[in-house]
Amino acid sequence: MESAATERAAKRLGRLGLVVFVFFFACLLDTCVARFREPLFTVHLLPGERAWVDGMLDPEVTELSQLGVEAFDDAVRLRLDRLQRGFWLGGTMWVGEVAVDPGAAPGVREVRVRRLEKPPDEPPDGSWRVVVHADAASRRKSHLSLLRRHLGIAPGLAALACVPLLALILLWGWFLGRRKERLLAAQGLSEIFLSRGVPEGTEVFFGLAAGAAVEPGRTVVIVDGERRPIAQARVGKTDGRNASALAAGLLTPLPPGACVRLAAEDPPREGGPTRN
Fold this sequence. Notes:
Elements: H1 2-37, E1 42-45, E2 50-57, E3 67-71, E4 76-85, E5 92-100, E6 107-115, E7 126-132, H2 136-142, H3 146-151, H4 155-186, E8 189-198, E9 201-207, E10 219-223, E11 229-238, E12 242-247, E13 259-261
Helix pairs in contact: 1-4
């Protein structure tokens, strides 16, 4: 049956979506944990590599010539490149490039940016921690991110890659849902999306396909996933898109795939799950 095949495809897609979402959340968590465990303004480099760094400045700094660089090892240098506006909060930022000599020994260095008129005993205007590794393997082992350390995957990029995949899964799930709704409507059925016990019995809620004419007071049949009748119910409210119906007796929980047949020619089967 086409509707059953569509339902199976929707279930598989839902499981895939769950796996992708869990991986997406794990990537975000891995990124945040690694970020908070490592000191801010830290860059990891190999001998001979370069990296761009930046930092905020006081508003009175208007020219690059007002700044100086403090380096404590000739093997690691910082070259100031330009001043620019901050991306998020505005203000003035300095932008520079850290370079590590090819023969630099592994270790941790520090480079600082300071206004020239600022006394040496005052905090610098910017400070970066430069971690030099002997090789790519040692740098990978030093990463606090589990994905980076064990798989060599940047968790932020992995999380970003999950976004279009999740969007595609949601879009395809919506398409399968609409297809299933049309196939059920062609059989005179509508899937129940909510049921609850009430003092008068069991109230079920189901959607209405375009053109379905269901008026309050009409009798419908509740069927299980195999389309076998369970009980009759009387339509209570409808807004043209969704409707509710009341069945006598306690039917919850309804079996998976329970639907409403919009014609009451089939009586409920004997020995069904109806309980008073």
